[in-house]
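User: I've been trying to design a sequence by hand for this structure and keep getting stuck. Would you show me what you'd pick, starting by listing the structure so we're on the same page?

Assistant: Good idea, let's start from the same input. This is the structure you sent:
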């Protein structure tokens, strides 16, 4: 069975340090999946190429172009996701946010995600845990424990290479798992994860709040 991992990269220039980091993570993840005896296909979504279409989507009441529809479907049906953004003013780029605003809010439920970011200085490293991780948690994705941050001086360093390898290993384990996986004590259950399309609504059993309170007097 071939696993399909989609890399969403929000780099703005050519060449781009964001795309460079995305390539390194994708290569490491592919190696980790292959080492476990499975084949993998890597697809890229370059957000720079659909910047105008994303802006139009936002101001037309959410009407996607055919190309944007295809990209949304590509992400929604992936077995795993690598999401990489440059950092501006302490957070992910507006282009990155626009794309994930355009994705159906239920389409990434249960999808294993590795988050990564680039910036000119290490001062921005908290973007992983204070901006990106909450975004994908809200989308109910399974964010692997290790995020990868790369300041300009990190490229080529052993520390960055180690973080990439560790994150890639966690993502590969999540993608290949048929039930639950455990990395560093982190073991979400992926067994019931449905195949999704960009328009899929995931239903869950919800107990009404009134039923939860029934039988309680309101006193401690």
């Amino acid at each position: 069975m071939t696993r399909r991992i989609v890399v969403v990269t929000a780099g703005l220039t050519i060449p781009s340090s964001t795309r460079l980091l995305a390539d390194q993570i994708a290569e490491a993840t592919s190696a980790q999946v292959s080492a476990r005896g499975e084949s993998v296909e890597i697809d890229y979504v370059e957000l720079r190429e659909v910047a105008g279409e994303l802006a139009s989507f936002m101001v037309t009441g959410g009407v996607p172009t055919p190309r944007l529809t295809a990209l949304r479907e590509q992400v929604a049906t992936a077995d795993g996701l690598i999401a990489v953004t440059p950092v501006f003013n302490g957070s992910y780029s507006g282009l990155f946010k626009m794309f994930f605003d355009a994705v159906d809010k239920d389409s990434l439920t249960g999808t294993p995600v590795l988050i990564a970011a680039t910036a000119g200085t290490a001062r921005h490293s908290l973007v992983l845990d204070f901006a990106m991780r909450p975004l994908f948690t809200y989308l109910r994705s399974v964010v692997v424990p290790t995020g990868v941050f790369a300041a300009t001086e990190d490229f080529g360093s052993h520390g960055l290479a180690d973080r990439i390898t560790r994150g890639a290993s966690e993502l590969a384990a999540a993608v290949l798992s048929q039930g639950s996986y455990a990395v560093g004590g982190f073991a979400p259950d992926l067994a019931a994860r449905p195949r999704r399309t960009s328009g899929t609504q995931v239903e869950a059993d919800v107990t009404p709040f009134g039923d939860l309170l029934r039988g309680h007097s309101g006193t401690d």
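That's my pick for every position. To get oriented when you compare it with your attempt: The radius of gyration is 18 Å. The chain has a mean pLDDT of 88.
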